[in-house]
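Lab manual, section 2.4: Encoding a predicted structure.

Procedure: take the sequence of the chain (114 residues), apply the prediction step described in section 2.3, and record the output as structure tokens. A sample record is shown.
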Amino acid sequence: MKNLASMMKQAQQMQSKMAEMQAKLDAMTVDGAAGGGMVKVTLSGKGDLKKLQIDPSLVDPEEREVLEDLIVAAHADAKQKVEAMMAEEMQKATAGLNIPGMGGGGLGGFKLPF
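Recorded output:
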């Protein structure tokens, strides 16, 4: 019974830390860029596109495909940064928790729904 109570306490701590992490991620933003900074995007900590900036020199009808590719590249750059930030926050949130089946204090490869 002592182990069960300890496990329940750890699960509650993890749930609380996860809620804190979600709120923190909602408030964070990450910038990504492509084309030497000519296309910039800003994503929320959860990966939602919040802002798009395009250098005026790129707005040429004959260069539309290049511009589209740069937007995709800038978004991918920012998205990778969001994923790294989320992994770091997850590590902080689960530090010190030793829940069986979770890889000794981490989430051991579990994929979370955000």
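Check your result against the sample. Strands lie at 29-34, 39-44, 49-54.
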